[in-house]
Task: inverse folding
């Protein structure tokens, strides 16, 4: 006799999966990820330049290279000496796989330092360099200027 046969016993075999426990687990995981996601986006605190561009949404975590006001360079949160930057980027698996990084430079850093860092990234094989700015500060600054101009 087959498994789905109900001859003689009067019972029917249930062949459906109960998904309620799985949905419960998925909802708990969703809440956990929603709570912890803002904590993951940490880095070096820098004074970002202002921009009026719309923010770009990132689907996955990207490699961020930061330059603070004292011209110290960080890959993620790890400080890297300037003379070792090209070597570190060339040996970074994420950078070599994606061929991109995001530059997070303080507004007080001279333009030449930023260009030197971008050149080191290019020599290391990084073809796409994105710039991180502070869009909210740009909006506030432009509103202040308009208010002051009206007075």
Result:
């Amino acid at each position: 006799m087959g498994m789905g046969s109900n001859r003689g016993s009067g019972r029917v075999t249930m062949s459906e999966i109960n998904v309620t426990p799985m949905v419960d687990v998925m909802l708990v995981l969703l809440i956990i990820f929603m709570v912890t996601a803002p904590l993951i986006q940490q880095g070096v605190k820098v004074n970002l330049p202002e921009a009026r561009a719309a923010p770009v949404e990132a689907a996955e975590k990207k490699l961020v290279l930061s330059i603070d006001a004292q011209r110290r360079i960080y890959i993620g949160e790890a400080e890297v000496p300037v003379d070792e930057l090209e070597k570190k980027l060339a040996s970074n698996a994420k950078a070599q796989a994606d061929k991109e990084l995001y530059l997070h430079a303080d507004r007080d850093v001279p333009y030449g330092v930023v260009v030197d860092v971008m050149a080191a990234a290019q020599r290391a094989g990084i073809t796409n360099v994105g710039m991180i700015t502070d869009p909210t500060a740009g909006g506030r600054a432009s509103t202040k200027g308009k208010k002051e101009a009206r007075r």
Strands lie at 64-67, 73-75, 78-80, 100-105, 128-131. DSSP finds five helices and five strands in the chain. The radius of gyration is 26 Å. The helical segments are 20-40, 85-91, 93-98, 111-123, 135-150.
